[in-house]
Design goal:
- The longest helix is centred in the N-terminal third of the chain and has 47 residues.
- Helix 1 runs antiparallel to helix 2.
- The chain folds into three domains: about 70 residues, no CATH class; about 100 residues; about 90 residues.
- It contains eight helices and twelve strands.
- About 55% of the residues lie in helices and about 20% in strands.
- The protein has a four-stranded mixed beta sheet.
C-alpha cells in the first residue's frame, strides 16, 4: 500500500511543480525578464528546464528518502555486484564438493543394495563363487621370456573356462565372463620377466551368483618356492593310550592334519588339504597295539619336497619322548 501512496504523491508533486514552473515561465515571458543576459524567450525556456530538473530531483530525493533498497542499489550497486561475484566463486568448490558427496552417497546406497542382495543370496545358498575364491592356480615357466605372454593368456583362458562351467553350466558356448584389469596383467608380466619360478593365482573379486554375465577377478603372483622338505617334521601332538579309541583317535589325527595345513599356509603354500599316506593309519594302529607305553607324540612328517602349489603328503610317526 505504501508503494501506491508514494506513486500518487510523486504524481501530485510533479504536477504541482510543473504547474508552478509553467506559471512562472509565462509571467517571466510576459514581463520580458532576462536572466544571465538571455533573451526573454530563452529565459522562459531555461525556467521550464529548471522546473523539469526540479521535478526529477525532488522525485528522486523523495524516493531515496523513503526507500532504503533504492538507496543501497543506487550507491552500493558496484560493491554488491563484486561481492555477489566473489560469493559465486566461493560457491564453485562447495558445489563440486557437494557433487562428490552426492556421488559417494549414491555409491554407498548402491553398495548397500548389493550387500542386501548378497545377504539374501547367501542365506539361500545361491552363490556359486565366493569373494577371494581361487579360479585357477598355475605354475609358470619364466625361462623362455618370449613365451611368457602366451603362457599368461593360456592360464586366463583356462580360468575363464572353469568360471563359465560354474556360473553358466547350461550354456554350451564358452563366452568371456572373466574380467581382469589390463594394468594388472601388465604388472604380472613385468614381475615374471625378472626371472625365477612363479605361481599365478587368479581370484574372484566378489561373490558371484549363478547366471551372472561378468566375473571380476585379479591375479596374484607368488614365488614358487620349496615349502616343506622330505623328512621334515611339520607338527606334532601329545597322545595317550586313553585316547586310543575310534572317536578320539580320529579327532586327534584330524587335528594334527589341520595344524599341518595351517603351518603350510603360513609358509605360503596354496594347497587346501594335507594328503595322508594311505596305509599310515593302519600301520599306526598296529604299532600302538603292540606297545604298552602310555604316552607318546604323534608327528606329521613330509614324504617329499613340496613347492608352493604342490601337494603335501605326510605320514604319521610315533615318538616316545622318554625313550
Amino acid at each position: 500500500m505504501s508503494g501506491w501512496i508514494l506513486i500518487i504523491f510523486l504524481l501530485l508533486l510533479g504536477g504541482l511543480i510543473s504547474t508552478l514552473g509553467d506559471l512562472l515561465g509565462s509571467k517571466i515571458g510576459k514581463a520580458r525578464l532576462s536572466i544571465l543576459k538571455l533573451r526573454p524567450k530563452k529565459t522562459a525556456i531555461l525556467i521550464t528546464v529548471l522546473t523539469g530538473s526540479l521535478i526529477s530531483a525532488s522525485s528522486l530525493s523523495l524516493m531515496l528518502l523513503v526507500n532504503r533498497q533504492l538507496r543501497v542499489g543506487l550507491f552500493r550497486l558496484g560493491d554488491l555486484q563484486q561481492k555477489l561475484q566473489e560469493s559465486k566463486e566461493l560457491l564453485i568448490p562447495l558445489k563440486k564438493e557437494r557433487e562428490k558427496l552426492e556421488n559417494k552417497i549414491q555409491g554407498k546406497e548402491t553398495e548397500l543394495k548389493q550387500l542386501e542382495k548378497n545377504i539374501i543370496a547367501l542365506r539361500n545358498g545361491q552363490f556359486v563363487i565366493r569373494s577371494g575364491q581361487s579360479l585357477i592356480i598355475s605354475e609358470i615357466d619364466s625361462s623362455n621370456k618370449e613365451d611368457i605372454k602366451a603362457q599368461i593368456e593360456k592360464i586366463i583362458i583356462k580360468a575363464n573356462i572353469f568360471t563359465h562351467k560354474i556360473v553358466k553350466p547350461k550354456s554350451k558356448e564358452i563366452k568371456n565372463l572373466l574380467l581382469l584389469r589390463k594394468n594388472h596383467i601388465e604388472e604380472l608380466q613385468k614381475t615374471i620377466l625378472k626371472g625365477g619360478d612363479w605361481v599365478i593365482n587368479i581370484k574372484s573379486v566378489r561373490n558371484v551368483l549363478r547366471g551372472e554375465n561378468f566375473v571380476y577377478a585379479f591375479p596374484e603372483i607368488t614365488k614358487n618356492k620349496i615349502i616343506v622338505k622330505k623328512g621334515e617334521k611339520i607338527t606334532k601332538i601329545n597322545f595317550n593310550h586313553e585316547d586310543f579309541n575310534k572317536k578320539d583317535f580320529g579327532d586327534k589325527v584330524n587335528f594334527l592334519l589341520s595344524s599341518s595345513l595351517a603351518e603350510m599356509k603360513r609358509r605360503g603354500s596354496l594347497i587346501n588339504e594335507i594328503k595322508l599316506r594311505s596305509d599310515s593309519i593302519k600301520e599306526l594302529r598296529d604299532l600302538l597295539s603292540k606297545n604298552d607305553k602310555t604316552k607318546f607324540e604323534l608327528e606329521a612328517v613330509s614324504l617329499r619336497n613340496s613347492k608352493t602349489v604342490q601337494p603335501v603328503i605326510v605320514e604319521l610317526n610315533i615318538n616316545y619322548p622318554n625313550s
